[in-house]
Amino acid sequence: MKQVKGSLCYLIAKFAEESEHYEWLFEHKEVTNFYIRRQLAMMMLPEVEDTVEDPHNMLIDRSKLLVDSFKYIATLDYLPGSFFVKFEEEQATGPGVLREWFLLACQEIFNPNNTLFIACPDDNRSFFPNQASEVNLLHLEYFQFSGRMIALALAYDVQIGVVFYRVFFLQLAGNGVLLEDIRDTDPFMYRSCKEILQKDAKIVDQDVLALTFVCEVESLGVRREIELCPNGKDIVVDSKNRETYVHLLIQYRYITSIAEQVAYFSKGFSDVITKSRLWSFFWCLSHKDFNLMLGGRSDISVEDWKAHTDYNAYEESDLQIS
Fold it and tell me: Transferase: is it a keyword of this entry (predicted)?
């Protein structure tokens, strides 16, 4: 099939219709490219219109952007609808203002100071639900609101400069999380788990790891131990159970500890994309595809940009350019 990739992509781009089923194609992503997968994913999203007779009118105070946005979006019974956004004491309206609002509101959602999401240590554009988000009493409602906002941003084709951890994307797509999935998300934990699994069995059975089936978590500045299984504090990690230990540790860190947050985010997402289409939306995209749609590219080359710029009536050295 790879030999006819170009022709297949052309046919899909030209003749694909929303009513058709493409499950067979989702199984063979290698015969498509990002633009085709994006086209199919966008077909799963609701159509949005910039001009309708009865849009959702929102008056937003920039100093209370997150609170005001939550007040409007969280209380809507019908989504996606159409939105008319105006900032207080400003005259500008229209699609540009709507896109600016999407961008600013989503940046506030993922602002670590708001405790909903935490950024990857190695990539401050990449986010994951914060297991300590309960410091905000309305945190679950805000996760549902966040799911609505992300789905709406995708439907309106607004790139918000934010991407998701692989393990977060996998859970939204209904998939499990394995050790290899945390390689980039948590390199330190990944290396530690690999070391546990690869260490000589005789050495492990001498209890040199000094580990039991517990993990330490911190919430509101308080550290506590969580048992990974019943009586976990009394079970020593050895060569026979170390794979189970690593599996349970990953499940707790990346699934159990944020299960409520992910569930409410998914609920908000499915308020915009119906559950019947949610599976197809995620199934036709890879993690990289989704992040390109949501966050755009982060590797823009300024030098390449300059090299391919046409200066009509100007020179590169002109004051207006330089």
Answer: yes
Q: How far apart are CA 259 and CA 252, in angstroms?
A: 9
pLDDT value for 10 = 47
> Does the residue 12 lie in any domain?
yes
Beta bridge pairs of residue 83: 56
Closest Cα to residue 142, out of 100, 108, 168, 185? 108
Judgement on whether residues 113 and 221 belong to the same structural domain of the protein: no
Q: Quick one: CA dihedral 212, 213, 218, 222, positive or negative? A: negative
Same domain, 36 and 154: yes
The number of C-alpha atoms within 13 Å of 167 and in the hemisphere containing its C-beta is 26
- The boundaries of the domain holding residue 183 are 179-254
Are 136 and 142 in contact, with CB atoms under 8 Å apart? yes
| Three-class DSSP category at 6 | helix
DSSP 8-state secondary structure symbol assigned to residue 64:
G
Low-confidence ranges of the chain (pLDDT < 50): 9-11, 13, 15, 19-20, 299-305, 307-311, 320
